[in-house]
Every structure is written in structure tokens, then in C-alpha cells.
Amino acid sequence: MKKVLVVMAVMLGVGCVSASALETSEDSVKTCCSQATQDKYTKIEISEIPEVVKTGVEKAYPDQTIKEASVAEKDGAKTYKLVITSKEGTESSVVFNEKGEEVK
């Protein structure tokens, strides 16, 4: 009987440690994700998109057109959030840096 109680106490102890470790990792994931989405994009005209970015979109997504554009600046680097549409009318949101490279 004593062995059963000892085993149960050990199992509860391990379970509590695992649960607290799991909670910590969830908090760090929430912090990471909320920081990544804090970039504030400002809507711009399509004509304001640099040619290098337009060329990058054309290469990565042929036969699609840019419908909307927004820009964000962080640490002196600009990123462009673009809404592109296919010929069928399907819309997608993509992000490119100022060098015309897609940011994933």
C-alpha cells in the first residue's frame, strides 16, 4: 500500500512540473506572436510601390495583379503587404521586403 501511495505522489509531482512547463511555453508563444503582428502598415497607392517589389511579385506570382498595398517601416527597413488577385478573382495577402524578396 505504501508503494502505491509513493508512486501516486511521484506521478502527481511529475504532472505538476509538466503542466507548469507547458504553461510557460504557451506564454512565450503568445508573446512571440503578438510581437510579430505589431507592425503597423499604412495604406499606399499601388503607384508608390517600388519597381523592384513589383518585379518580385511578378516573378513569384505570375498572372496575378496587385489590388491593394500597405507599407511598414521598422529599423529603417520597409516591408510591403500586398493583396494580389488571380484571374479567377482569388485574393491572397503577401509580404515583400524593399529588395523585392518575399517575406514568409
Protein traits:
104 residues; alpha+beta; 4-stranded antiparallel sheet; 2 helices
Secondary-structure class: alpha+beta
Main pleated-sheet profile: 4 strands, antiparallel
Number of strands: 4
Tell me the strand percentage band: 25-35%
Spatial sequence of strands, sheet with the most strands: 1-2-3-4
Shape verdict: elongated
Give the distance, in angstroms, between the N- and C-terminal Cα atoms.
Answer: 57 Å
Radius of gyration: 24 Å
Q: What value does the average pLDDT take?
A: 80
Q: How large is the count of helical segments?
A: 2
Helix content: 40-55%
Succession of helices and strands = HEHEEE
Low-confidence parts lasting 5 or more residues at pLDDT below 50?
A: 27-36
Question: Would you summarize the structure shown here?
Answer:
This protein has 104 residues and is an alpha+beta fold.
Folded structure, characterized:
This protein is an alpha+beta fold. It has a four-stranded antiparallel sheet, covered by helices on one side. The chain has helices spanning 2-36, 51-60, and strands at residues 42-44, 65-74, 77-85, 91-97. The chain starts with a helix and ends in a 7-residue tail after the last strand. The longest helix is centred in the N-terminal third of the chain and has 35 residues, at 2-36. It is built from two helices and four strands, in the order αβαβββ.
